[in-house]
Write a structure and sequence with these properties.
Blueprint lengths: L1 E2 L7 E5 H11 L4 E4 L6 H13 L3 E4 L3 H13 L4 E5 L1 H6 L1 H9 L4 E7 L15 H5 L10 E3 L4 H18 L2 E7 H5 L1 E5 L38 H19 L3 E4 L6 E4 L2 H16 L4 E6 L1 E3 L3 H9 L3 E6 L5 H9 L5 E5 L8 H9 L2
Parallel strand pairs: 3-4, 3-5, 5-6, 6-8, 7-8, 11-12, 11-14, 14-15
Antiparallel strand pairs: 1-2, 2-9, 7-13, 10-12
Amino acid sequence: MIPMTNKDLKKVLITGNEAIGEAAIQAGCTFYAGYPITPQNELTAYMSRRMSETGGTFIQAESELAAINMVFGASAAGARAMTSSSSPGISLKQEGISYLVGCELPAVIVNMMRAGPGLGNITPAQGDYFQATRGGGHGDYRTIVLAPNSVQEAFELQILAFDLADKYRNPVILLGDGTLGQMMEPMAGYRLQATGYRLKTKKPWAVTGCKEREPNVIRSLFLKEGVLEEHNKKLQRKFAEIEKREIRYEEKNTEDAEIILVAYGTVSRICQAVVEKARRKGIKVGLVRPITLWPFPYGIVNKLADLKKKFLVIEMNYGQMLEDVKLAAEGKGKVKFYGRGGGGIPQEEEIIKKISNF
């Protein structure tokens, strides 16, 4: 981390991984458990230093499985808890994430995606979209998924992630990639301080001892006939409330656009430049950028499809968000796709060529 002048100023030059870590501190995170994996190791390293400075708990676990279950325990005790990893490591955490949802425990999980499947390599990718937005583990559940496209937004959405996790008692995933984690940008609203911020949120459901109250029980095992079904119905009502209230997206130049690019995260940055270049050439192109991948902004895509807009979905994979765009368009707008996987990054010239051949 390189302060632009001194640590008392509110703007610094900082990497995405470090910005996410500092946001967690300022959001009141008191517990972090993780396990090293590229390209998010700087986040783990940052938390190892800052948590000790602010009186929190940092644990480098023996595995990703251990880390997510440590987060489970800390969250059950009322802590604002988080973990972070990259694609293969997040796969190992899926059982624990399912348990978190089933027990209605808040937690923040950061995934700085790398290329797969399998161990793949350490280059940036977006191949974890299905895993993040479809639950990932066993059972009928959802996690809120936030997808920043800048260091500044990564900082802001990480703070939001903690708030949403507590509000809905549900895990929230911050979904970035290796490019976002490693790149360095100026960021405003940053404050270095020795003690960190502590949010005093009352959690009457937490297992914090019961000398002065009835015991709290946190579980996801319901064996009596019909009880689990009722619990699942309760969860589904919560997910419906999230879909109603927490959709976030950005649109640019869509009013007169004939072709709408749909992209998120790092790729949306590339697409913003494409929109500007295409318009200088007289091609009417716009952009829709989902910020919440779940809940997905079906409404804006559907509205633009009603206007007979065409959609070009751009991803660093072979067509995952594409399925949500097609569902949103409901056959009313033509949808095409261009993507690269395995660490390949779509280039401006490639996208412009796809637009020209639409």
